User: Fold these one by one.
Assistant:
Number 1:
Amino acid sequence: MAEKIKFRPHHFMCTLGFRGKGYSLGFVRNYKKIAQQLNDNEETQIEVVQFMDSICSACPNKIDEIVCKTQDKISKLDAAHSAALSLKVGDIFTWKQAKEHIKKNMSVEKFHTACHGCSWKEYGVCQQSLENLIEQP
Ligand code: SF4
């Protein structure tokens, strides 16, 4: 059985929009591996966690298992995404279910509010990925 992934709330949307960019070589390598695992097997399980997750584990901004160098921003993103997607710590989704959940619960308008303050937002790939998902039959 595939290894269970852990995501803090805002990383569901980030993973939908991930295009191989990130904070360091190690971060990108780790993220690509996670994205590959999810896309190769959409039944891979993902557990919602409150603090450091499978993506944070290789982030150069990580300080310890609880906080990172941009904690204020990250806490706001997590709170906003939890609310927008009605996520609770301990929830478990397969990647397939997670995408269905995003499609049902996230709109472009909600995305702009939930992702406010993220430096990656201006590149447009996250919005584009969300629009593509919403448009899928
Ligand atoms: S804009 Fe930022 S927080 Fe929002 S999905 Fe993209 S990378 Fe994640």
Note: The first strand starts at residue 5 and ends at 7.
Number 2:
Amino acid sequence: MSKPLSAETMAIVKATAPSLQKHGVEITSRMYERLFADPEIRFLFDMAAQASGEQPRRLAAAILAFAQNVDRLEAIKGAVERISSRHVDTQIKPEHYPAVAYALLSAISDVLGENATDEVLNAWGEAYLFLSDILIEREEALHREKEAA
Ligand code: HEM
């Protein structure tokens, strides 16, 4: 697992998360605009939408909410299980994570405007990487369990 986030990074993430969550719809639509520009990523969501009957509108909101709890990992254990198993079902792979990072950071930059300083974007980039590592590790374990069964 990646090393824990510094207290400073956490403080920046926590300070900016509420204003990002307030603009949830804008963040989500900007994220998807960027994500879906890549046909391979769009395909993953199209397939998932067919399976579950709805688009994953809550992805951005989940990342924001999740990031606020990265200093209390026990609080997000249940969510990590649910998300990882959904990702395994929908064929999400480690190499898909950077596209979401790029889309998220661009959306944050658009929504926060001049308040999206390098410091803020770096803190969010670190928090996203940290969360990605947790999910990727769990998803790899689930794949191994599936293969062994
Ligand atoms: C830190 C990173 C991520 C977080 C926090 C996250 C969060 C979530 C959440 C909360 C769900 C819904 C789970 C449920 O059914 O209850 C979900 C599903 C999904 N995620 Fe992620 N995700 C992340 C990364 C990614 C990446 C990198 C991709 C692919 C580009 C992706 C694609 C999907 C898809 C296709 C679904 C299924 C949507 C559906 O149920 O229709 N996610 N994710």
Note: The radius of gyration is 15 Å.
